[in-house]
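Deviations from the work plan: none for this task. Representative record:
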Amino acid sequence: GAGVSQSPSNKVTEKGKDVELRCDPISGHTALYWYRQSLGQGLEFLIYFQGNSAPDKSGLPSDRFSAERTGGSVSTLTIQRTQQEDSAVYLCASRSTTGAQDGYTFGSGTRLTVV
Amino acid sequence: AQSVTQLGSHVSVSEGALVLLRCNYSSSVPPYLFWYVQYPNQGLQLLLKYTSAATLVKGINGFEAEFKKSETSFHLTKPSAHMSDAAEYFCAVSDTSGTYKYIFGTGTRLKVLA
């Protein structure tokens, strides 16, 4: 697609429920990132996918968080047993393999509210 | 390890005045540096980038930034603020190999006064 698409744009969930957030990157972009934007924590790196390589999961805050990328395209970020501190905007970004100097293209984010 | 410091979480300027948003970085290797802008309820949009070419970088919407290695700074400027510039601005540093993941500053919210 023309841009990075994220869904849903807003999600309200009850504490303890699981949620899935979806990211559809720009067609042909092999690198995909998830970031979390929350009050008091700013923008935090979560996970990085590059092609078929093992993902860099070094930013995932706990084992309740996981992500996968199927077919080198769409990615899903899953949060199990959500907690109130998980409330944040989750941003996805993609870039081309050779485009590190070009910067990322970000999606509009998913605003997650845990009540 | 890399880090980014943005001085001033909130900056107010009058319409038509100079905009100066400060960013200092720390990196053990030559970095890539970026400025992004975020409008309410939107994602981040790339304003400009430094990737070891010209030290004075021009971006969109009349913004520019100068990379000063001696000062480890990458301040964002615009000669004349417009009401539409009101937004949050983020400085980011990335490494130049491997994952190219970003370390972001905490952001500066720019308010433009009529």
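The first strand of chain B starts at residue 3 and ends at 5.
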